[in-house]
């Protein structure tokens, strides 16, 4: 069972897609005018009803994008993937909603409201804006302060019973009631923009969030009086941590944080990354590397190289043995340095905007 609060390191994406009826996004790529690099490269691998969003994109019709966050620590490269998708969608006729899940953080993680709010402003919203998100296109709110969302959640709660919640989320007799209500708040987060305007909505998520999407789609179909359009969704892979396994805010050695400064220790972290290189330089030259199993190559693919041609060159040089892992990691660190320096300059101004947004 995959739940939003518990996901293992080695998710079987193929099996999960089959089990829950998630369709491959590669079948739709030909219909998307300008697919995101994460779609082209198979990192966004699946979808539900994304055809509806493609139609809106093609016809320049309005659609909504919703991406919630539950801040739990410093923002790292794995979290950046969501922002990259929001940046893509903001070029279309969209309104972007960003709920801050402070109620869920309180119920499921025991975090107090002030800590969640400060973390959301200082780390997340600040970085979202520094990365290029247009403050005029986003609608950021705290769940605990949004009366429309809470009111809708109360009404929709009667559309699902405990057995269904248990089957979807695996709740037990030990689960606190707040934790059980949290998914209904999420359902209301996703559906409430349609109370104002009936436009299709897409929710870009990691596979661990799919239970929320399944529940929301079921409830949207049952609550006939609201005439909701069931939400579309896309699913992306999780980023591998620098040493293999999961990238995690609570294990700094596994992650590159967006607030990291270029330094000896950061260089050391990059130079110690798990690669797909061979045991010896001789073998590497003879057999070539295995970029498919390499975290450095993953960093290039997900974040550091936009140009498909440049990425292919690295792939080919790795495969042929022309590129050594030492050279490759050095280049990777240079690209990370350039990215972090640029982001750090933008963050000071973004911080002020982020504070204003939450104050409103
Ligand atoms: Fe990875 Fe680069 Fe080594 Fe290839 S050469 S295995 S891409 S670090």
Automatic annotation (TrEMBL):
<dbReference type="InterPro" id="IPR020653">
    <property type="entry name" value="Tryptophan-tRNA-ligase_arc"/>
</dbReference>
<dbReference type="GO" id="GO:0006436">
    <property type="term" value="P:tryptophanyl-tRNA aminoacylation"/>
</dbReference>
<dbReference type="InterPro" id="IPR002305">
    <property type="entry name" value="aa-tRNA-synth_Ic"/>
</dbReference>
<dbReference type="GO" id="GO:0005524">
    <property type="term" value="F:ATP binding"/>
</dbReference>
<protein>
    <recommendedName>
        <fullName>Tryptophan--tRNA ligase</fullName>
        <ecNumber>6.1.1.2</ecNumber>
    </recommendedName>
</protein>
<comment type="function">
    <text>Catalyzes the attachment of tryptophan to tRNA(Trp).</text>
</comment>
<keyword id="KW-0648">Protein biosynthesis</keyword>
<feature type="short sequence motif" description="'KMSKS' region">
    <location>
        <begin position="246"/>
        <end position="250"/>
    </location>
</feature>
<dbReference type="InterPro" id="IPR014729">
    <property type="entry name" value="Rossmann-like_a/b/a_fold"/>
</dbReference>
<dbReference type="GO" id="GO:0004830">
    <property type="term" value="F:tryptophan-tRNA ligase activity"/>
</dbReference>
<keyword id="KW-0963">Cytoplasm</keyword>
<comment type="similarity">
    <text>Belongs to the class-I aminoacyl-tRNA synthetase family.</text>
</comment>
<dbReference type="GO" id="GO:0005737">
    <property type="term" value="C:cytoplasm"/>
</dbReference>
<dbReference type="Pfam" id="PF00579">
    <property type="entry name" value="tRNA-synt_1b"/>
</dbReference>
<keyword id="KW-0030">Aminoacyl-tRNA synthetase</keyword>
<feature type="short sequence motif" description="'HIGH' region">
    <location>
        <begin position="71"/>
        <end position="79"/>
    </location>
</feature>
<keyword id="KW-0547">Nucleotide-binding</keyword>
<keyword id="KW-0436">Ligase</keyword>
<keyword id="KW-0067">ATP-binding</keyword>
<dbReference type="InterPro" id="IPR002306">
    <property type="entry name" value="Trp-tRNA-ligase"/>
</dbReference>
């Amino acid at each position: 069972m995959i739940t939003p609060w518990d996901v293992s390191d080695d998710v079987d994406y193929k099996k999960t897609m089959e089990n829950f009826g998630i369709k491959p996004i590669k079948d739709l790529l030909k219909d998307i005018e300008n697919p995101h690099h994460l779609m082209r490269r198979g990192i966004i691998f699946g979808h539900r009803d994304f055809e509806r969003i493609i139609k809106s994109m093609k016809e320049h019709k309005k659609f909504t994008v919703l991406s919630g966050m539950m801040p739990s620590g410093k923002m790292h490269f794995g979290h950046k993937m969501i922002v990259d998708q929001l940046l893509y969608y903001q070029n279309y006729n969209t309104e972007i909603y960003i709920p801050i899940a402070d109620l869920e953080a309180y119920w499921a993680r025991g975090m107090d409201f002030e800590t969640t709010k400060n973390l959301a402003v200082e780390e997340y919203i600040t970085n979202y804006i520094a990365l290029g998100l247009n403050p005029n296109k986003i609608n950021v709110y705290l769940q605990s302060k949004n009366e429309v969302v809470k009111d809708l959640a109360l009404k929709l709660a009667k559309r699902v019973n405990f057995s269904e919640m248990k089957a979807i989320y695996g709740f037990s007799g030990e689960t606190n009631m707040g934790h059980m209500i949290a998914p209904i708040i999420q359902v209301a987060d996703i559906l409430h923009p349609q109370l104002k305007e009936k436009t299709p909505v897409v929710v870009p998520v990691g596979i661990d969030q799919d239970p929320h999407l399944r529940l929301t789609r079921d409830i949207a179909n049952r609550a006939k009086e609201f005439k909701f359009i069931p939400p579309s969704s896309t699913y992306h892979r999780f980023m591998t941590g620098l040493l293999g396994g999961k990238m995690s805010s609570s294990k700094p050695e596994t992650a590159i944080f967006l607030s990291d400064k270029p330094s000896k220790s950061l260089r050391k972290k990059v130079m110690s990354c798990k690669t797909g290189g061979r045991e010896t330089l001789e073998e590497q030259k003879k057999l070539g590397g295995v970029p498919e199993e390499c975290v450095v190559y993953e960093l290039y693919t997900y974040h550091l190289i936009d140009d498909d041609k440049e990425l292919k060159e690295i792939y080919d040089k790795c495969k042929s043995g022309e590129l050594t892992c030492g050279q490759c990691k050095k280049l990777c660190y240079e690209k990370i340095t350039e990215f972090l320096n640029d982001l750090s300059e933008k963050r000071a101004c973004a911080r002020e905007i982020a504070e204003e947004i939450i104050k409103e």
